[in-house]
Design brief:
CATH architecture: 2-Layer Sandwich
Number of strands: 9
CATH class: Alpha Beta
Radius of gyration: 17 Å
Distance between the termini: 34 Å
Number of helices: 6
CATH superfamily: Endonuclease Chain A
Largest sheet: 9 strands, mixed
Strand order of the largest sheet: 8-1-7-6-5-2-3-4-9
Order of helices and strands: EHEHEHEEEHEHEHE
Strand content: 15-25%
CATH topology: Endonuclease, Chain A
Structural class: alpha+beta
Helix content: 25-40%
Shape: globular
Length: about 210
Protein backbone atom coordinates (compact mmCIF):
# COMPACT_ATOMS: atom_id res chain seq x y z
CA UNK A 1 0.00 0.00 0.00
CA UNK A 2 1.64 3.29 -1.08
CA UNK A 3 1.58 6.00 1.58
CA UNK A 4 2.56 9.67 1.62
CA UNK A 5 3.15 11.44 4.93
CA UNK A 6 3.23 15.24 5.17
CA UNK A 7 3.91 17.94 7.72
CA UNK A 8 3.15 21.61 7.17
CA UNK A 9 5.94 23.83 8.50
CA UNK A 10 5.29 27.28 7.02
CA UNK A 11 2.60 29.65 5.84
CA UNK A 12 3.57 29.64 2.15
CA UNK A 13 3.14 25.91 1.55
CA UNK A 14 0.31 23.53 2.43
CA UNK A 15 0.92 19.87 1.51
CA UNK A 16 -2.67 19.16 2.58
CA UNK A 17 -3.98 21.60 -0.01
CA UNK A 18 -1.99 20.00 -2.83
CA UNK A 19 -2.80 16.39 -1.94
CA UNK A 20 -6.48 17.13 -1.32
CA UNK A 21 -6.82 18.72 -4.75
CA UNK A 22 -5.01 15.79 -6.37
CA UNK A 23 -7.27 13.36 -4.55
CA UNK A 24 -10.44 15.18 -5.61
CA UNK A 25 -9.34 15.51 -9.23
CA UNK A 26 -8.23 11.90 -9.67
CA UNK A 27 -9.39 10.95 -13.18
CA UNK A 28 -10.10 7.38 -12.06
CA UNK A 29 -12.89 8.32 -9.65
CA UNK A 30 -16.28 9.98 -9.68
CA UNK A 31 -17.34 10.89 -6.13
CA UNK A 32 -15.99 12.15 -2.83
CA UNK A 33 -16.57 11.98 0.91
CA UNK A 34 -15.30 15.09 2.69
CA UNK A 35 -15.27 15.15 6.50
CA UNK A 36 -14.05 17.90 8.79
CA UNK A 37 -14.58 19.20 12.27
CA UNK A 38 -14.75 22.77 10.97
CA UNK A 39 -15.55 24.03 7.46
CA UNK A 40 -14.76 27.68 6.78
CA UNK A 41 -16.99 29.31 4.20
CA UNK A 42 -17.33 32.54 6.14
CA UNK A 43 -19.26 34.91 3.89
CA UNK A 44 -19.19 34.39 0.10
CA UNK A 45 -20.52 37.92 -0.41
CA UNK A 46 -17.55 39.44 1.42
CA UNK A 47 -14.31 39.11 -0.57
CA UNK A 48 -12.30 40.12 2.51
CA UNK A 49 -13.46 37.08 4.47
CA UNK A 50 -11.94 33.63 4.04
CA UNK A 51 -14.04 31.34 1.89
CA UNK A 52 -12.45 27.98 1.15
CA UNK A 53 -14.54 27.28 -1.95
CA UNK A 54 -13.20 30.36 -3.74
CA UNK A 55 -9.67 29.32 -2.77
CA UNK A 56 -9.54 26.80 -5.67
CA UNK A 57 -11.51 24.11 -3.82
CA UNK A 58 -14.78 24.62 -5.70
CA UNK A 59 -13.01 24.26 -9.04
CA UNK A 60 -11.48 20.95 -7.93
CA UNK A 61 -14.77 19.58 -6.60
CA UNK A 62 -16.71 20.64 -9.70
CA UNK A 63 -14.17 18.86 -11.86
CA UNK A 64 -13.74 15.75 -9.75
CA UNK A 65 -17.43 15.17 -8.98
CA UNK A 66 -18.93 16.15 -12.34
CA UNK A 67 -20.12 12.57 -12.93
CA UNK A 68 -20.86 11.75 -9.30
CA UNK A 69 -21.52 13.48 -6.01
CA UNK A 70 -19.91 14.76 -2.84
CA UNK A 71 -20.90 13.64 0.65
CA UNK A 72 -20.01 16.23 3.29
CA UNK A 73 -19.81 15.71 7.05
CA UNK A 74 -19.29 18.49 9.60
CA UNK A 75 -18.99 17.95 13.33
CA UNK A 76 -18.19 21.09 15.28
CA UNK A 77 -21.46 22.88 14.64
CA UNK A 78 -22.69 23.51 18.19
CA UNK A 79 -21.35 27.00 17.71
CA UNK A 80 -23.96 28.72 15.55
CA UNK A 81 -21.28 30.55 13.58
CA UNK A 82 -19.69 27.34 12.33
CA UNK A 83 -23.10 25.92 11.44
CA UNK A 84 -23.70 28.98 9.25
CA UNK A 85 -20.29 28.52 7.63
CA UNK A 86 -21.24 24.92 6.83
CA UNK A 87 -24.53 26.07 5.32
CA UNK A 88 -22.64 28.55 3.18
CA UNK A 89 -20.37 25.73 2.02
CA UNK A 90 -23.31 23.55 0.97
CA UNK A 91 -25.08 26.46 -0.73
CA UNK A 92 -21.92 27.25 -2.67
CA UNK A 93 -21.59 23.70 -3.94
CA UNK A 94 -25.27 23.46 -4.88
CA UNK A 95 -25.18 26.81 -6.65
CA UNK A 96 -22.28 25.54 -8.75
CA UNK A 97 -24.32 22.51 -9.82
CA UNK A 98 -22.54 19.96 -7.63
CA UNK A 99 -24.69 17.10 -6.33
CA UNK A 100 -24.32 17.27 -2.54
CA UNK A 101 -25.30 14.86 0.21
CA UNK A 102 -24.78 16.84 3.45
CA UNK A 103 -24.56 15.26 6.89
CA UNK A 104 -24.04 16.41 10.46
CA UNK A 105 -22.37 14.64 13.37
CA UNK A 106 -24.30 16.37 16.14
CA UNK A 107 -23.15 15.78 19.71
CA UNK A 108 -20.59 13.25 18.51
CA UNK A 109 -17.51 15.35 19.28
CA UNK A 110 -16.66 14.74 15.63
CA UNK A 111 -13.17 15.99 14.90
CA UNK A 112 -12.15 13.58 12.13
CA UNK A 113 -10.62 15.04 9.01
CA UNK A 114 -10.97 12.50 6.22
CA UNK A 115 -11.32 12.77 2.45
CA UNK A 116 -12.15 9.58 0.54
CA UNK A 117 -12.10 9.26 -3.24
CA UNK A 118 -14.69 6.85 -4.64
CA UNK A 119 -14.97 5.02 -7.93
CA UNK A 120 -18.45 3.59 -8.46
CA UNK A 121 -18.98 3.68 -4.69
CA UNK A 122 -15.69 1.89 -4.01
CA UNK A 123 -12.97 3.74 -2.03
CA UNK A 124 -9.68 3.96 -3.92
CA UNK A 125 -7.76 6.56 -1.89
CA UNK A 126 -8.04 8.45 1.40
CA UNK A 127 -6.41 11.50 2.99
CA UNK A 128 -6.48 11.38 6.79
CA UNK A 129 -4.90 13.73 9.30
CA UNK A 130 -5.19 16.88 11.37
CA UNK A 131 -6.19 19.41 8.70
CA UNK A 132 -9.65 20.97 8.86
CA UNK A 133 -11.24 22.65 5.85
CA UNK A 134 -10.16 26.05 7.13
CA UNK A 135 -7.79 28.83 6.16
CA UNK A 136 -5.07 27.93 8.71
CA UNK A 137 -4.84 24.38 7.31
CA UNK A 138 -5.71 24.71 3.62
CA UNK A 139 -4.89 28.32 2.82
CA UNK A 140 -1.46 29.67 1.92
CA UNK A 141 0.32 32.93 2.69
CA UNK A 142 -2.18 33.81 5.36
CA UNK A 143 -1.16 35.46 8.66
CA UNK A 144 -2.61 32.56 10.67
CA UNK A 145 -1.56 29.03 9.80
CA UNK A 146 -1.18 25.73 11.65
CA UNK A 147 1.40 22.98 11.75
CA UNK A 148 -0.60 20.09 10.27
CA UNK A 149 0.18 16.44 9.64
CA UNK A 150 -1.68 14.34 7.06
CA UNK A 151 -1.33 10.88 5.55
CA UNK A 152 -2.45 9.90 2.06
CA UNK A 153 -3.03 6.23 1.25
CA UNK A 154 -4.11 4.70 -2.02
CA UNK A 155 -4.98 1.18 -3.04
CA UNK A 156 -3.21 0.62 -6.31
CA UNK A 157 0.26 1.40 -7.65
CA UNK A 158 -1.35 2.57 -10.89
CA UNK A 159 -2.22 5.77 -9.02
CA UNK A 160 1.43 6.49 -8.15
CA UNK A 161 1.77 9.01 -10.98
CA UNK A 162 -1.08 11.03 -9.49
CA UNK A 163 0.19 11.14 -5.92
CA UNK A 164 3.98 10.77 -6.10
CA UNK A 165 4.59 13.87 -8.19
CA UNK A 166 7.20 16.11 -6.61
CA UNK A 167 6.08 19.30 -4.97
CA UNK A 168 7.27 22.62 -6.36
CA UNK A 169 9.45 23.32 -3.35
CA UNK A 170 12.08 21.25 -1.57
CA UNK A 171 9.93 20.32 1.40
CA UNK A 172 10.82 16.85 2.60
CA UNK A 173 7.95 14.42 2.35
CA UNK A 174 7.58 10.81 3.34
CA UNK A 175 7.01 8.29 0.56
CA UNK A 176 6.57 4.74 1.77
CA UNK A 177 5.24 1.46 0.49
CA UNK A 178 3.74 -0.66 3.24
CA UNK A 179 3.98 -4.40 2.67
CA UNK A 180 1.40 -6.50 4.45
CA UNK A 181 2.83 -9.52 6.23
CA UNK A 182 1.40 -12.59 4.44
CA UNK A 183 1.73 -14.60 7.65
CA UNK A 184 -0.51 -12.22 9.56
CA UNK A 185 -4.28 -12.33 9.24
CA UNK A 186 -5.33 -8.80 8.28
CA UNK A 187 -7.43 -6.98 5.70
CA UNK A 188 -5.97 -6.23 2.27
CA UNK A 189 -5.24 -2.66 1.20
CA UNK A 190 -8.60 -2.41 -0.59
CA UNK A 191 -10.41 -3.90 2.40
CA UNK A 192 -8.78 -1.44 4.79
CA UNK A 193 -9.92 1.52 2.69
CA UNK A 194 -13.39 -0.01 2.57
CA UNK A 195 -13.40 -0.32 6.37
CA UNK A 196 -12.49 3.36 6.74
CA UNK A 197 -15.32 4.23 4.37
CA UNK A 198 -17.81 2.08 6.26
CA UNK A 199 -16.70 3.42 9.65
CA UNK A 200 -17.31 6.97 8.48
CA UNK A 201 -20.72 6.30 6.98
CA UNK A 202 -21.92 4.24 9.97
CA UNK A 203 -20.64 6.52 12.72
CA UNK A 204 -24.00 7.92 13.77
CA UNK A 205 -24.06 10.83 11.34
CA UNK A 206 -27.43 12.20 10.31
CA UNK A 207 -28.63 13.86 7.09
CA UNK A 208 -28.59 17.64 7.18
CA UNK A 209 -32.30 17.99 6.44
CA UNK A 210 -32.01 21.74 5.99
CA UNK A 211 -30.85 21.05 2.46
CA UNK A 212 -32.17 19.00 -0.39
CA UNK A 213 -30.14 15.81 -0.85
Amino acid sequence: MPVRVTLRTGKAFSPYRILLKRLIEMPDGDSLILCSGYIQETDPKNPRSYNILSDELLASISKGCAKGSITTIAGKVENRQWLEFYKNFIYGLQHAGVRVKPYLARRKNWHAKIAIRLKQNKPIAALIGSSNLTGPAYGINRPNWNFEGDVLIWSDATYNSNFKQRFDNDTLIGDMTLILDPETSQPSEEEQLKLIYQDVMHSGIEPFEYFEA
